[in-house]
Every structure is written in C-alpha cells, then in structure tokens.
Amino acid sequence: MVVAAPASLVRSDLRDGVQWLTIDRPQRRNALNAQVVEELAAGVRDAMNSREARAIVITGAGDTAFCAGADLDPATDGSPFALSPADPRHFVATFFKLLEDCRLPVIARVNGHALAGGLGLACACDLAIASEEATFGTTETAIGLFPMMILPYLLRTGPRRKILELCITGARFTAPEALAMDLVNYVVPHRELDAKLAWLLDRILDKSPTAIRLGKMGFHALQDMSLVQGLDYAQLMIRIMAQTDDAREGTRAFMEKRPPHWTGR
Question: Could you tell me the CA-to-CA distances from 90 to 18, 81, 100, 254 in Å, in that order?
C-alpha cells in the first residue's frame, strides 16, 4: 500500500534573492508542530545552499497570526512537548540552533499574533518587522508551563525584569510595547508591512553577502565572550574579512566612486 506524503505546511519560494518561508496553517493560527518546524528548517537549509538567496523571510499565512506557538491539539500529531528517550533534543531547539548558524539574514514578518513559541520564533530571527495589529505574549503559564524554550532568546533581546514579569503573568502586549522592549525592529500600519519589509530588504541586498555572512558569525560569537576575548577574536576576524574578494572589491569601488559588484567570495 502506498502511503501519501503529508501535505506541505510551509510554502517555500525564492523571489528576487529572498527565500520566503510561509507557515501555511491559518486554520490552526499557524501553530508549530514537528512537520512545520522540519519544513522551516528545510527551507533555511535550501537558502543557505543556494547561490541566489541573499536573505530569508519567515511569516504566517493570512492576516490573523504570524505563529500562535506550539500546536496543543494532541489529535494533530501528539504532544509538542514529548521527547524520545533515544533522542531528547526538541525539534524547536534544534531549529533555533540552525537559525543561529544561518549565514543569511533572517527576517520575521510578523503579520499577526506572535504568542509563546511564535514570539520565540520572531526573536530567534535576526530582524523583525511587525504590523501594528500584531499581538505578542508569553502565554505558557496559563496552561501550566513556563516559556523555557524561548527564554534564551527573550533574555538576549529584551529587558530582564520586564521579560520575567511577562513570563510569570502570561500577559499579552501590543506591537508598540514589543518595539519599546526591542523585541522587534519596526512597527508599521498593517497595510504598510510589505512596503517596510521591501525597504529593509533593499538595504540588505545591496551589501556584501560575504561581509554579512562573516559578520553574523562574529556577532553571535562575541555576545558570549568577555571583553578581552572579544577584542582578541575581533582583530582576527577583521583580518580574515579584509582578505575576501568582496572586501577588495568594496575598497576598489569606493576609490573609483562606483557601485560595487559583489561576488560573495
């Protein structure tokens, strides 16, 4: 008997140098389950292996939800918190580590609710643009849990005392409040969301892909180093960057007063 493959839950397409990954479960408010995360991870890996992709955008289908966190309906594919004794790694943690290692800028297009794991997903992306109508929240305490899986990113992104308050109370908050806590980069009226995203992508796609790739690696490494370690690391990285073809081309273009031609090498 031939078993049909499950329908895809993430739309993945490459447009004008941008890999778009759209969680396509509007009836479940684009909630995460193992299949969704596996398909998001596959899309990120495809972009990393592509010669054309220069950035990644993650968003949710429809206008209601970016991602409402883990799918809590056990009828879908079992508990999202169950782990195998043979492999105790949680699929969300594995995906977040992939985003950390991703060499391309990853942008969250927060088009609606970003709750629990959805908030974590937005924070795990490098940059985030949110609609004014988006709602955020760490709602896990309402179901007897605590937002453990997303805390590493919340603590690196937002103010400690406020993050702890939100985690304890499970209170929802608005997009402007998320902006005030540095959880997103920009908040715009919903009708302007794609225009603002295009504006940001334009500012990324004309820059050196090599500089961004090495810079992202250095950025993540430096945040866990002491000042002395960071300075030692930085002086080595700048020498490596200066030897790339893009750095040489960027310098020539500056001196010749012309736009650079990036090769990504």
Answer: 28, 8, 16, 47
- The residue among 250, 176, 165 whose CA lies nearest residue 211 is 250
- Are 183 and 128 in contact by the 8 Å Cβ rule? The answer is yes
Please give the Cα distance from 35 to 47 (Å, whole number). Answer: 18
Q: What's the rounded Cα separation, in Å, for the pair 247 and 255?
A: 12
* Cα 74 from Cα 87, distance rounded (Å): 20
What's the average pLDDT block by block, 10 residues per block, for the chain (265 residues)?
72 96 96 95 96 96 94 60 56 93 96 96 97 96 92 92 95 96 97 98 96 94 94 95 94 93 91
Identify the residue whose tokens are 């020498």. Answer: 239
DSSP 157: H
User: Quick check: is 140 catalytic?
Assistant: yes
pTM value is 0.91
Please state, in angstroms and rounded to a whole number, the distance separating the CA atoms of residues 51 and 55. Answer: 11
Which of 39, 133, 140, 249 is an active site residue? 140
